Amino acid sequence: MSGLFAIYKKEIVTYFRSPIAYFLISSFLLGTGYFFIYNVFSTGAATMDLTFRDMAFLLMILIPVLTMRIFAGEYAGRTMDLLVTLPIFTWQIVLGKYLAAVTILLIMTLATFINLIPMFLYGNPHIINIVSGYIGFVLLGMASISIGQLYSALTKNQIIAALLTLPTLLGFWWLGQLQNMQSSAFMQNFVGYLAFSIHYSELIRGLLRSEAVVYYLLVILTSVTLTINYIKWRR
């Protein structure tokens, strides 16, 4: 596990030595703060439902910026050959980088807790909805990061990695819009199951269903496994 921790530590230092982490955290905090204030004053209700929805959309726009350099940056800096020759397992390299990106996600998530202070001071929010919504948000973010990391491993260009990640994430999100266009019940259920938005909407309403959690975990496991196998093939 020392190899995994070494990769994780290196990635965290890289994030905070560059403007990436600061840009992502500040942009996300400003965006969610605006959405929160707007939603509370426009609806007059002390809830996080609409804010969670806006947070998810903002997150999918920012995730490509977070993940595009994970491996593509190694290719561009010509350090990938050195990285793959280190005496550590491939899964330690991939997981170390993945967990570092997830750490940035968790910091971004924790930063939004400041919005909860006025809610609890002046309102009566549903705690179950908030907890379930944050669980859904983190799962959505972790799934999105795993997809972005995969694209970063597949291309040597960071911009291309970001341009591939963004439409893929938005495609998974908008799949739910195609559900009613399917003629068969099987296809309706299948398309609905693949849609990020449908599982996420259930979670932000306080419906902490195992089906939604398992779906996001399957996306993470599949993407991370594909990344490990691809990097292993390159070695």
Q: Report the major sheet.
A: none
* Weakly predicted, low-confidence segments: none
Tally of strands: 0
* End-to-end Cα distance: 20 Å
The helix fraction, in percent, is over 70%
Number of domains: 1
The tally of helices reads 12
Order of helices and strands: HHHHHHHHHHHH
Describe the structure.
This protein starts with a helix and ends with a helix. The protein has twelve helices and no strands. It has 235 residues and is mainly alpha-helical.
In short:
With 235 residues, the chain is an all-alpha fold. The protein has helices spanning 2-17, 19-43, 49-67, 72-76, 80-84, 90-111, 116-122, 127-154, 158-174, 185-194, 196-204, 210-234.
Structure characteristics:
single chain; 235 residues; mainly alpha; 12 helices; 0% strand; globular
